[in-house]
Amino acid sequence: MGTSKFLYTAEFDGKRLFEFSPQTLRFTVRNVKSVPHPFLDCAFLPKYWTHAGGNRTEVFRKVIEYKEYPTKVEQISEGRWKLSQTNMGSRLPGGNAMISVRDRFIVVDEKYDYLVTEYYASGFHGKLAGTLEWDKQDGNWYAKKGKQMGGDKPFCEWIIEEISFDASKCRNSFDDLETTIPFATCITHLDEKYHEISKTYKGGAEGEAEFRLRQLARLKRTKEEGF
């Protein structure tokens, strides 16, 4: 079915989407004109570094600016401050607590120019928490490491190994991904309308035969075991 050492991988170079699924042993390269779906709501995108949990909650500054509920400020260690709001929604008619966010806090750190290093929110839709580790390059702060928890389970975790704020230095090709996919992977190239341009197999004819055998094995297991 593909092995545990291979992970689902998606890369986007601005013109093409490269996508590998180890479960089905399929690798696709598709021409695209806009940001593809796997990258639209990813928490590691810079536009979400100032939000708790990506696009699902308010920006961090609203913890400070939201005047209807008082913000408690406390120093938790040298240079680190916690800003919190609790029991939000309690002033609604009938004490209705069915609000997306009821309790929340952010932790800011002086050594990172008071950027948020930890956040938490809980309410009607459950709990969301996360941490951000910041680094600076060319005078720009960026979230080098990040981790998000949905309830008690990991939701997203990332590390940025290389970054540039000079667009001329950015990579424009991810062809090397095709060399790392395992034997018997089906490689398909698609145009912008998902029409097939070409199809090959890692390992040639031998790889194609193995791919088809694994597909039959997967169908047999699904029929017999339900997954």
Topology:
Elements: E1 9-12, E2 16-21, E3 26-31, H1 61-65, E4 72-77, E5 80-85, E6 103-109, E7 115-123, E8 126-137, E9 140-150, E10 153-159, H2 177-180, E11 186-190, E12 196-201, H3 204-225
Parallel strand pairs: 3-11
Antiparallel strand pairs: 1-2, 2-3, 4-5, 5-6, 6-7, 7-8, 8-9, 9-10, 11-12
What does this structure look like?
The protein has 227 residues and is mainly beta. The protein folds into 2 domains: 9-39 and 170-221, no CATH class; 46-159, no CATH class. It contains 3 helices and 12 strands, in the order βββαβββββββαββα. The model has no long low-confidence stretch (mean pLDDT 85).
Order of helices and strands: EEEHEEEEEEEHEEH
N-to-C span: 12 Å
Range of helix content? 10-25%
**Tally of domains:** 2
On the 0 to 100 scale, the average pLDDT is 85
Q: Count the E strands.
A: 12
Report the C-alpha radius of gyration, rounded.
23 Å
Low-confidence stretches: none
How would you classify the quaternary structure? single chain
Order of neighbouring strands in the sheet with most strands: 4-5-6-7-8-9-10
> What form results from the Cα inertia axes?
elongated
State which percent range the strand residues make up.
Answer: 35-45%
SS-based structural class?
Answer: mainly beta
- Enumerate how many helices there are, as a single number: 3
**Mind summarizing the main beta sheet?**
7 strands, antiparallel
